[in-house]
Amino acid sequence: MKSGNFHFLDFVLKEWLLFAAAAGLFATSLYLKRIPSYSRDEFEVLFLLASLFMAVKGLEESGLMSRFSQWLECGSFLPLKLVMATFILSMVVTNDVSLVMVVPLTLMLNLPRKGMVVILEAFAANTGSALTPFGNPQNLFIYWRYHIDPLRFILTMLPFALFFGVLLGVGALFLGGRSRVCEGRSTVVVSKKAFIYGIFLLIMVLTVFHMVPLWLGIGVILYAALFDRRSLKIDYMLLLTFFCFFGLADNFKVMLPSLIARSKNTFLLSALVSQVISNVPAAILLADFTTKWKALLWGTNVGGFGSLVGSLANLIAYKFYVAEEKNSHLLGFTLQFLLLGYLAFLLGTLLYMILF
């Protein structure tokens, strides 16, 4: 019985964010006396994430990621390469997808201060994705909603991306840059499944760009279920956490409109609201109340820093790390994530005030 209690306590500590989201969802639903509504887009996001996770898990099980990590580990400036890879990838394949690809690879590597590298990767994903209209969902929404010229959009967010890109690069350099000698190490064998899962991952990335239909994602689920059940072992608690936060955001949409209507500072409000309901719902919620697209764009991207729910990318990086590391590191990692996140939030706010 005692052992069972300890296992349950470990589970609660590991999944505290899920319990907090579920408690918030229950409390706000009880207060409003309503059941939150979920949009089709939100269920599509959950399906897309599940398919992506399975494709990446399949690549991991095939040995391809181990082979790549083995090759990568032997080079110089490993943390810098990982952080900058996330930064660049997020501009093209969105912040969430870039983290799904890079963080599992990072966790497979033998490198010191792994938690700090994951935190910088999360920040790099939020920073790089801010530069392009399709880098993250709130950018795409604002871009279409306000009919913004692509070049004007990029120039608006260029100072943000450059400022934090340089900071993150310098920070990654301090995490280590020595070259590692890997001669004599046995090479990891890659199975033929890597090719199949590589195709599935490509399909899911194209789905993000709306180049192929979302329903094709069922292919990776069926393949894993029929031929490779180990790839079904993804983080379902993370998907449930997203589900709870989507419902919580819907409840906040009912509770916040009067406060929003009275506010005159679009940037500050969007950044602060993002801390509670995440930056994507914040952008959708506030767009009905303002014509100041630059303030909304900056506010929701700066709001991606700070709390763990400021951006769904934060949740992905956090949960990947927590799932792999021991609970003894959880508190320190969480505090470190929050402290550095709110420091970035403050710097982003100051940068906006200086520029605009």
Overall description:
The chain is mainly alpha-helical and 356 residues long. Helix content is 74%, strand content 0%. The chain contains 18 helices and no strands. The longest helix is centred in the last third of the chain and has 26 residues, at 330-355. It is globular. The model has no long low-confidence stretch (mean pLDDT 84).
Task: Provide a quick synopsis of the model.
The protein is mainly alpha-helical and 356 residues long. The protein is built from 18 helices and no strands. Helix 5 (78-93) runs antiparallel to helix 6 (95-108), helix 7 packs antiparallel against helix 17 (312-324) and helix 14 runs parallel beside helix 16.
SSE-based structural type: mainly alpha
Cα shape: globular
Mean pLDDT: 84
Taking the alpha carbons of the first and last residues, their distance comes to 60 Å
Radius of gyration: 20 Å
Strand content: under 5%
Number of strand elements: 0
Strand count, sense and barrel status of the largest sheet are: none
Helix amount, in percent?
over 70%
Number of continuous helical runs: 18
Q: Could you list the spans in which at least 5 consecutive residues all have pLDDT below 50?
A: none
Helix and strand run: HHHHHHHHHHHHHHHHHH
